[in-house]
Specification:
heterodimer, A: alpha/beta, Rossmann fold, BirA Bifunctional Protein, domain 2, 2 domains, four-stranded parallel sheet, 11 helices, 41% helix, 23% strand, B: Rossmann fold, GMP Synthetase, Chain A, domain 3, six-stranded mixed sheet, five-stranded antiparallel sheet, 28% strand, disordered C terminus
Chain lengths: 298, 477
């Protein structure tokens, strides 16, 4: 093997020989070799337009889905270096890898956006976060969680980062009224010690920001959830990030109403926003019912 | 900033409400923007609790609906959205990239010795190291496979092992493409999903780890009639597969299992013990074509057949080194020979046997104690399901043997009981000084026990620290 072809060329040649044959089966989806090759080309073109060049490192934090394969071979066709790593890695593990290889981009699942947002500041080389797929898992429980959502005009905040900061500070102040000393350095994760006590995710659509927060008032007992979502026993404690809650920090669990009563005055005093209780309007109710129906679809 | 927001307080909501409120509010506002609605809708904050346990699940998450009902857990599915829903700020959507980019691209000509992939592996100590694998490494691996276990276009190969691991990536995905096979992707391993994937796609090749074969066999035992028989070939690696599991699996699925051995540093497999051919129980097989394998002593000199030493490998599948880490590279690759850190021997027929990891050896009173030997004894105890043995420091700062034991479900045992069993079967100096019972043992993606995490002072790297400097270059205690 004096001069073997590269991995990108390998796919190209195999695909050319058997364009119509099936390359991948994924659930009910079938992907032909032609389609696989073209999607890899699209990734290569897309990465190139983001400024990724031959030799650059591109991290992959993806499970076994077709997008992994497109991304992997797209990177190869570009002559860049793929850095796939364990999807269960968290925090410092990810920071270490991304810094060690000086990754310029990461392609990962939408549900990992929070994890990566939180560490982006610690990885100076990381310019692009590319998201795909929908494998989010959020656990809610009467004993544990409170969910705060905001749907507001984009110009409510100076920038997405500003929204992360302001809402993060709001949650920290709210937690403080219950005696919890939390901190927030990075986007997305509010922590006590090293553990997570709340999360913030800021998304955008058209002229709106959609901000979604989850805070843990009491300990989240995950056993029941793992009966429903199959996770092999050895990795259970790795699927979840280490978490804590107001109750674990202070001995008392506030109710959702108490959380609201603590948050609203802070919204007023720090942001000058008063909140008037209301309901969904007629036009909104239609969308509400539609989404609930879709959410129930098996 | 607007002065008054609308508050929607929903203390007794559920998982579906978390989806429904946000999307209702977004849709209402967007309708307003395009004047599809006359109502002016305000900025809104929703504060909600849950009246029952719930899971908000992405479209690709595998949920057991029946169990959810039994435990009164409300499952709400994210709609599978191809259209532009909310996107986290500062990110790019891969689907947008795919939609807007050209489908034509000529692969660049790469230097065969340029890195193609970096794979990070955890050693026994310290932070994960990046193993550099080149285009040549993968080309050679495909060439080796084509001689030992050729696949072809008519094969359907199951990709259930994570593709971020060398075994799934190199022997699964890249071999799969090299031979032009059809590949079945399993995104989330569960025994039932794997069996279903084999069944539905009439898979002919399975590449998996011992725990998966054990799980599949457990299902097969309870449903004797409908076991898929399409597998012509199975490969097991990552950890040793018990001989009785291998035999029973072959019988039930009417297939053959070849046991492989390899490392991230060797682009996965370097030898194969093929059941049905020149097979030797407990062996990892002879070195593959294109691979030189030797057993050497501490001075690097080859030892006689049957004698234990470290296994070293020379081949074009061997990594050029660790990324950014010349010290680790020099320590591991000497004169072109990769030092695997695995102890073993070669028999007179050229078959290799692994006995232990060099770094896991426990040294007490001048004696070498093999953790694996003690673990294998513990496995034979009827109440023991899993076990791991490591060295800990005793009061006088000597190495002492500590056993971690996971009991079979529903079983109870005392430390005394376990120690007595060891005393009856082991030399005194090998009997553990400490026994700790655990619910499970930390394992890697391929089922290897992570001894590092059992050691005292193990630092949980999933935690984030407040001080950013700490995130840079601190190593495990």
């Amino acid at each position: 093997m004096d001069n073997p072809r590269g991995l990108g060329r390998m796919l190209e040649e195999v695909a050319k020989k058997q364009k119509k044959r099936q390359a991948m089966l994924f659930g009910n989806r079938e992907v032909s070799y032609r389609e696989l090759d073209e999607n890899a080309n699209k990734v290569a073109n897309g990465l190139q337009s983001l400024g990724i060049r031959s030799g650059d490192r591109v991290a992959l934090m993806l499970p076994n889905i077709p997008d992994f394969v497109y991304a992997f071979f797209g990177i190869q066709k570009l002559g860049a270096v793929a850095v796939p790593f364990n999807t269960m890695y968290k925090g410092r593990e990810i920071i270490h890898i991304l810094n060690d290889c000086e990754a310029r981009a990461i392609i990962t699942m939408t549900n990992f956006a929070n994890l990566i947002n939180e560490i982006q500041e610690d990885v100076p080389s990381l310019e692009h976060i590319i998201l795909t797929g929908q494998r989010t898992m959020v656990f809610v429980s009467p004993d544990s969680t409170v969910n705060v959502q905001m749907v507001v005009d984009k110009d409510t905040f100076a920038s997405g980062d500003d929204a992360f900061r302001v809402v993060g500070a709001l949650l920290i102040d709210t937690l403080k009224t219950f005696g919890v000393e939390a901190w927030y350095k990075h986007r997305g994760g509010i922590r006590c010690g090293g553990k997570k006590i709340a999360t913030v995710l800021v998304s955008e659509v058209e002229n709106l920001l959609v901000i979604n927060c989850l805070a843990f008032l009491g300990p989240l007992k995950t056993e029941d959830f793992f009966r429903v979502v199959w996770v092999s026993p050895e990795i259970k404690d790795k699927v979840m990030e280490p978490m804590t809650s107001v109750e674990e920090q202070t001995g008392t669990r506030p109710s959702v109403a108490q959380f609201k009563d603590a948050l609203l005055p802070l919204l007023q005093s720090t942001l000058g926003i008063s909140a008037e209780e209301g309901q969904l309007k007629r036009d909104e109710l239609f969308g509400y019912e539609k989404t609930r129906a879709l959410a129930d679809k098996e | 900033m607007a002065d008054t927001w609308r508050l929607i307080f929903n203390p007794d909501g559920d998982a579906a409400d978390m989806l429904a409120y946000a999307s209702a509010l977004v849709e209402g506002r967007i309708a307003g923007k395009y004047m599809l609605s006359t109502e002016k809708l305000p900025n809104t904050i929703v504060i909600q609790g849950a009246r029952q346990k719930g899971i908000l699940a992405g479209a690709d998450v595998d949920i057991n609906k029946e169990t959810a009902r039994r435990y009164d857990i409300r499952v709400a599915n994210y709609p599978r959205s191809g259209r532009g829903g909310p996107k986290p700020v500062g990110t790019v959507n891969l689907s947008d990239v795919l939609k807007t980019s050209s489908r034509k691209f000529n692969a660049v000509d790469t230097d065969p010795d340029a890195p193609a992939v970096l794979l990070y592996t955890s050693g026994t100590t310290g932070r994960p190291k990046g193993v550099t694998l080149t285009h040549r490494n993968f080309a050679q691996q495909c060439d080796n496979v084509s001689k030992v276990l050729p696949l072809d276009q008519s094969d359907t190969i199951v990709l259930v092992l994570p593709l971020f691991h060398v075994y799934g990536l190199s022997n699964g995905l890249i071999s799969g493409i090299f031979f032009g096979t059809r590949m079945t992707l399993v995104p989330q391993y569960s025994p039932a999903m794997l069996l279903e994937a084999i069944e539905q796609t009439k898979a002919t090749v399975l590449i998996a780890v011992p725990t998966m074969y054990m799980h599949l066999l457990q299902i097969a035992r309870t449903r004797k009639t409908s076991i898929p028989k399409s597998l012509r070939l199975c490969v097991s690696g990552g950890a040793p597969l018990a001989l009785n599991t291998l035999r029973e699996f072959e019988q039930a699925f009417q297939t053959r299992i070849a046991e492989g051995y390899g490392l991230t540093e060797t682009t996965s497999s370097v030898c194969l013990n093929k059941s049905g051919e020149a097979f030797k129980p407990g062996s990892i097989g002879p070195a593959a074509e294109g691979v030189q394998m030797r057993v050497v002593d501490d001075n690097g000199s080859e030892v006689a057949d049957g004698q234990e030493g470290e296994i070293v490998i020379k081949s074009a599948v061997v990594t050029p080194g660790y990324w950014n880490n010349p010290e680790a590279t020099e320590e591991t690759i000497k004169d072109g020979w990769l030092h695997t850190g695995d102890l073993g021997y070669r028999d007179e027929d050229g078959f290799f046997f692994i006995t232990d990891r060099k770094k896991d050896l426990i040294i007490r009173g001048g004696f070498n104690i093999s953790p694996r030997e003690i673990e294998e004894l513990l496995f034979t105890h009827p109440k023991v399901q899993d076990a791991a043995v490591i060295a800990v420091q005793d009061k006088r700062d000597r190495e002492a043997v500590k056993a971690f034991v996971v009991l079979q479900e529903g079983q109870e045992a005392t430390e005394r009981e376990i120690l007595d069993y060891c005393s009856q079967n082991l030399a005194d100096y090998k009997v553990p000084k400490f026994v700790e019972f655990r619910d499970s043992l930390p394992k890697s993606a391929t089922g290897k026990i992570l001894r590092k995490e059992l050691r005292e002072g193990y630092r949980d790297d999933r935690l984030l620290d407040k001080v950013s400097g700490d995130n840079k270059e601190q190593h495990n205690g």
